[in-house]
Structure formats: C-alpha cells, structure tokens
Design goal:
With 205 residues, the protein is mainly alpha-helical. It has one domain. It is built from six helices and two strands. A two-stranded antiparallel ribbon has the order 1-2. The longest helix is centred in the N-terminal third of the chain and has 37 residues. It is elongated, with a radius of gyration of 20 Å. The C terminus is likely disordered.
C-alpha cells in the first residue's frame, strides 16, 4: 500500500479538479448555446444532452471520488488483515475502521461517508432508495477525512513493526527506492498530519 497519506489525497483532489473543469466547461457551453444556438446546430447529441449532462455531473463525479476513496480504504483493509485478496463490502470497511478503539471516527464523519456510499449505489447500481443529496465538496471532504485516518493507522503500524524488528522502512519516492529509519518515518508522518489538519475545512473538524 502507498506509504504517503498525500498520495491518496492527491488522487481524490485530481478527480475534484477534473469535476471543476468539467463543470466550468458545461456552464460555459450553456451560456454560449443560450446566446447562439447555431454553435451546436450540427452536434445533435450535444444539443440534446447538454442539460442532462449538467444535471448529472455531480452524480458522475461523486461515483469517481468514491471509487478513489474505496480503493484507499480497500488497500488499508487488505494490509490490516494481511490478506492481499480480501474482498470486503464498502459499508463493512467503513464501520470496521470507525469502530477501532484507537481511531474512533467521529459519528458525523462516518455517517457522511455512508451517505456518499448510498449516493454511489443510487447512481452506479440503480438502487431504488433515492438518497438525500450532498454537495460534492462535502462528499470530497468526508471521504478524505476517513481515508486519512485509515492510512494514519497503517503508517503507524509499519513504523512500529520496523522499530520492533530494527529494520529500515523502504518506500518508493520520486522514481527511486528510499530507506527511512523509524524515527525519520515518524517525523515525516507527524509533519504530514500537521499539514493535513491545518488544511481541513471547518465543516469536517
């Protein structure tokens, strides 16, 4: 599993950035079509589905953001149970992580993640239970908050094992193998956590 918490955060932020770019493009095209419908006169598919593309954009990117989150959580789950083939339902992984004594994910965060999961199921699996809508920025923040906790626990386990076995921690960074002592890894982890906490939006604290 990736060593750096920031790798998963960066991936979710990449998807978020793509959503913002797509939203901007769709809104701009809407404005242009409203000003001059002839610009899509030959693009029947664009003209026919432009409104639905705008309406469904958040749902589409909610699925993608949750997919990035679920991949992070599954990586933690397989590492935690030392089973690279382990397949666990998303709802179970969320609850298991939230119930760990040394984490105790705050209930509002856990409930928010489950709300996002239900939205994903509605859009991706044709669920009959229509969930309450959540702004996509809250989707991103809730998922990042819980994914961060999973990787913090995993990183501390890696460091503890290295300390007990008196070995270095081998990671892949900037295209090359890097060895860190448990002390160096701990310092990096604490620095990453401090930076993360300083950037957490107020609605996830």
């Amino acid at each position: 599993m990736p060593y750096l918490l920031s790798e998963w955060r960066a991936h979710i932020q990449e998807v978020w950035g793509e959503y913002q770019a797509a939203k901007f493009a769709v809104l701009r095209l809407h404005e242009q079509v409203n000003a001059d419908a002839n610009i899509v006169a030959r693009e029947h598919g664009v003209r026919e589905y432009l409104s639905s593309a705008d309406t469904n954009l958040e749902g589409t990117y909610t699925i993608r953001i949750f997919a990035a989150f679920e991949a992070a959580l599954r990586s933690y789950d397989r590492y935690h149970f030392d089973d690279p083939e382990r397949e666990t339902k998303a709802a179970t992984m969320i609850n298991q992580l939230g119930a760990l004594n040394h984490i105790r994910v705050r209930i509002p965060i856990r409930d928010g993640v489950h709300c996002v999961r239900r939205i994903r199921n509605f859009w991706a699996h044709d669920s009959d239970d229509e969930p309450n809508p959540i702004p996509i920025n809250r989707v991103r923040d809730s998922l990042i908050a819980q994914a961060d906790l999973a990787f913090e626990v995993a990183c501390r386990k890696v460091i503890d094992r290295a300390r007990q076995s008196k070995t270095e921690i081998v990671i892949w960074r900037d295209g090359q193998i890097v060895e860190l002592s448990p002390e160096e890894a701990t310092a990096e982890l604490e620095a990453n956590l401090a930076k993360r906490k300083s950037n957490i939006p107020s609605n996830t604290k």
